[in-house]
Fold this sequence. Notes:
Elements: H1 2-23, E1 31-35, E2 38-45, E3 52-56, H2 68-76, E4 80-84, E5 93-94, H3 103-111, H4 122-135, E6 141-146, H5 148-159, E7 164-170, H6 184-191, H7 198-211, H8 221-234, H9 238-249, H10 255-260, E8 265-270, H11 279-286, E9 292-296, H12 308-321
Helix pairs in contact: 3-9, 4-5, 7-8
Amino acid sequence: MRVLILLAVLICGLPSFAFANARCDVAVPTETVDLGPVRLAYQSIGGERDPALLLIMGLGGQLIHWPDEVVQSLCQSGFRVIRFDNRDVGLSAWTGAEPSVNLPFEVVRYRLGLPVSAPYGLRDMAMDSLHLLDALGIQRAHVLGASMGGMIAQHLADLAPERVLSLTLVMTSSGAQGLPAPSPALLELLARREAPNRDVAITQQADLLAALGSPQVSDDRGQLLEQAARSYDRSFNPEGVQRQILAILAEPSRVDLLNRLQVPTLVIHGTADPLLPVMHGVHVAAHIKGSELKLIPGLAHRFQEAFKEPLLSAVLPHLRAHRAEGHVAQL
């Protein structure tokens, strides 16, 4: 009898398992939507009636830089995962006038404490996210931002707190003065976007990925070059990345913004982050009332294989704790 029951459970469970895999197919087509001054490329993975989870990527990152297996795990946990290219990167575009950008000059002004000129700001990019949710008919969503995406997510939660079910901020910063700075060598790699040809561009990107990785992980150079080649072949827009850098540099401290946030917030940071050292995450959490801080030993400033499970183990309980409200997230 027990064998028959077990067989019945397995047989009945197979269709639902197959459905879950089909529902969470990360190879769904990339779609685009025109939102006034921007055209955003996005993927929506999961059921339209599931609670929405908006992923906001960091500087120069494309939607493909969210690891597929992480996206699939989030979807299989019951969320409709939306990942997209920010304006000026990937298959997205900013249709505003393209002013000449003198990044070295603006960096000098930033280091001297002088105002930085930028064609748009992080708050404008937060409005892009809100307009994308509008276009998809999503009234409320969970929001997860990484690095610059975490800065954008802070603005989104400030602009429309009633639309944010929960906020997850990964490897990001408050932008306050006095926090530990990255090494000049790493900043130089980050800003080095000009390249005479594909091979040089791919090598530069692989160098940057290696520098952003954890000292606890030995990277495979071939895999880094493959990742860099995939990004380059999908899109290469160094001028757009420079404009994103200017948006970050032009940003004042967000401490006052963080102090007024009242959405359920989880802050995740790595103890080995070379770009935004761990005190950046500690500082963010200290200024968001009621927030939870999770420090992941060894995590640096990349989604490396060794840290995918620790990241999911930190993120999923937070999302599930606020998941029920998401069932009414559709307009």
